[in-house]
Amino acid sequence: MPLGTVIHNIEITLGRGGQLARAVGVIAKLIAKEGKPATLKLPSGEVRLISKNCSATVGQVGNVGVNQKILVRGVVTNPIDHPHGGGEGRAPIGRKKPATPWGYPALGRRSRKRNKYSDNLILCRQSK
C-alpha cells in the first residue's frame, strides 16, 4: 500500500481479525513502512506500530449517517439516570467534579493500564 492510504478494520496481532478502526465513518492512515513494522495514525490521534503482515481493509467504513445520535445532557435527566440530574430549575451539578453516567470522574482520569506489554508499540499517545 502507498503511504497515506486510508484503511480500517486493522489487525493488531496476525490472525486475530480486525480490531482497530471498525466504527462507522472511521479511518486510520498509513504513515510509514520502514523495517518490519508499519506506522499508523489511528482515529484517536495515537501513532502506533503494527506488523506489515497484519491485514486491513482499504477505504473508510461506510454508513456514516448512522453515527448521528441524539445526546441528552446529564443536567436535564432525573437523579436516578445520571449523577448530574435532578434539582429544581437550572440547578448546578452538585458535585466537586463532573461525572460520567456511571459515577466515575469525567475529566482527567486515565483508563489505560500502566506498564502494559504493548506500550513499546505506541509511538505517540492520544492527542486531545
UniProtKB/TrEMBL annotation:
GO annotations under biological process?
A: mitochondrial translation
Family label: Belongs to the universal ribosomal protein uL2 family.
A single Gene Ontology MF term assigned here is:
RNA binding
According to UniProt, the name of this protein is: Large ribosomal subunit protein uL2 C-terminal domain-containing protein
The alphabetized UniProt keywords are: Ribonucleoprotein, Ribosomal protein
> Which SUPFAM superfamilies would you find in this protein's record?
Translation proteins SH3-like domain
What species does this protein belong to? Answer: Gossypium mustelinum (Cotton)
Is this entry keyworded DNA repair?
no
- One GO cellular component from the entry? mitochondrial large ribosomal subunit
Q: Any idea where the Large ribosomal subunit protein uL2 C-terminal domain is?
A: 1-105
Q: Where is this region: Disordered?
A: 78-114
